[in-house]
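User: quick one
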Amino acid sequence: MLAPDRLGPVPADAQPAAAVLEAAGVSKTYGDGTAALAGVTLAVRSGETLALVGESGSGKTTLLRLFNRMVEPTAGEARVEGRPVASLDPIALRRRIGYVPQDGGLIPHWRVARNVELVPRLLGWERERRQRRGYEMLEMVGLDPQIHAARYPAELSGGQRQRVAFARALAADPPVVLLDEPFGALDALTRVELHRQFLELKRRLGKTTVLVTHDLGEAFRLADRIGVMRAGTLLQLGRPEELVQRPANEYVHALLALREGAPLAASGTAGDHASTS
Amino acid sequence: MPRQARVPSLLLALTLAAIALGAAARDARGAGVERVGRPGRVVIGSKNFEESRLLGEMFAQLLEGRTRLQVDRRLGLAGTQVCFAALQSGAIDVYPEYTGTGLVSILGERPAGGARGALERVRAAFLARWNLWWIAPLGFENAYQLAVPRDLARRERLATLSDLARIAPRLRAAFGHEFLQRDDGLPGLGRTYGMRFGSVQSMQETLKYQAARAGNVDVLDVYTTDGRLLLYGLAVLRDDRGFFPPYEAAPLVRGAALRQHPELASVLGLLGGAFDEEAMRKLNLRLQEGKESEAVVARDALSALGLVAGGPAGGEPGGEAGRGGAAARRGRRAPGLADYMWGERQALLRRTLTHLGLCAAALLLGALIAVPLGLYLERHRRGAEPIIGFLGLMQTVPSLALLAFMIPFLGVGTLPALAALWLYSLFPIVRNAYTGVRDADPRAVEAATALGMTPGQVLREVRLPLAAPVLMAGIRTAAVITVGTATLAAFIGAGGLGEPIVTGLQLANTSMILSGAIPAAALALLVDLGLGLVERALRPAGVRLAAGA
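Assistant: Done. Structure below.
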């Protein structure tokens, strides 16, 4: 019991130099007094996939959105590649960070190709390069460009839409990808298929990724490390097996017990505020 | 309910602002007239009933025949307040008014001293306060009076208003809107005679008479020179307590116009004492039942007095030839609707074009202001609810009131109508531009932002295209409202398809009413249909798919 204890948590905090994303004591309190985040510190290392799990209202989505400045912290600092995001132009920052929301967030009156080429176009890529990249990305996520590039999002299945959203997020080859429950709205079979594809992309591309999810099973399958959040605080951060072996408290323990069963029930104990978590 | 609590203070502020602006506009206008003047041109107004129009037309023809002045007609303005405001502001120079109206409605005084006393009082007061001149009275009184069907008068032995008061609780009364409100109308009458009717209905002039003939109404307010008194078998009761003030008719002229054209007074003075009640009743009857235009009747009356040359056969007098002229020329028989509309086709086309032009201009100006305003409010949402709420409030102002409200600022004619229609068009466009952009696929907007589109790019490339159908729906609503409301613009002399409706209502000429109403309704349907197609076409392709269309 002692040996793994010592090996476990040490590397996580001992390598700040390799951290691509950092949150240092970040808090977020909304105008109406609800605290979404209360002093969270964590670091995401280059190339790793970090999952944030927790109930609705635990603050995981708020934490995610600090990194692309969709949310500004009321205290503390978020850093990307060592630089405080507050010092960066939010537009330029966001173009360097991939983003996939739960429902894909595809722009409904744009064809698939235009959706995928969005960020390259914003970055001023030439048309041909953009189109080539768009087709490559569609192929990479398992869609046939000949069939799907000219379709509208409404003509795709939910799973296809999420694949397009992934293709769009990765099109400009960003070093960082933020995923906000990207598999949450899919049926079980499609979800399993997309999980498989995610793992393949992860192996091939090695992006630094933050994945917000309700589903602890999903976190265990996809993530290198897992952060458990509750009521705006980070209860525990560690590799899946560390969580299993040494849950930090009763809550994490109870959470893990539910893992094999139905998706985590949001019992409504935490105050539910506006942002989807 | 803070929203409701805000409304009165908002209305108050609006009213105060309007009064201040109105005074400023009037001053500016007055000064302009003094300096620049309008050489050789006078504008004749009238209220929107037959006798007033006839007198206005007589003034116009007399001035055309006896002076070199160019005469513009603004006949059929909606009621005393509109006419008086138009005269004060210089939008018109002359209109026929009644001494009793001047005394009671305008000065707010009680009548005393009979007909002579009333004339002396209004003359002095109007000169002192507004430099408005009462020229020589025309010789007849058109006073308010109550009338009952002859059978009823016989059966119940009714001769005086005191007799009527006795059985009033058993009677059904129908009164004009103005009579119900005015102090020298029903409220004062009730007090003087202790009169309470079984039921009181507010009814349009012509309908009132028809209802009396059909036996649905027992008592109605009438004017003593109304030709229909004879036709409908009505007995006029005697005002035994002298309640109704004297209503001598006379030209009321703006002092500034008189200073420029002193001949106005001498020429209009030719009509002093020219008509008694009986003569006016006959002239009015020709208008009311004979389907003749006031241009023809006025010409006949003036030539009978030897004031203008030529007889009734001497061709159509200038000016108002278009309105009802064709029907009048063809004689007294009322033609069928199709015949009538065919005969009026040129006037109809002209009115339709005027109508459309008025609506299109108002709508275009509305969209030019309202779309950017809607987008601005979406970016500054704190101000959105109050401002959109205020515009919604404007929407609840009755059209006729709003049109009348415009006169102090903009006079009569096209300009105030345009302004009123423009105001009505703002609300639906602003509201839809605002909500359309605000509610445009929030998830797509969020993702577009998170991937690094600037707010401007998101607006242009994502939100506006998605909001386009909603925005267009707002423009469509505004267009239909505008086409409908524009028929009322005829009340302040803006022309359009409302013109035959307004005139037809006064002349009880159904063909004439329908010749305006049918094209107006068809126009509204067409505009709705056409803009509906545009709305559909503007729906972005991917969204049309999603909607399953």
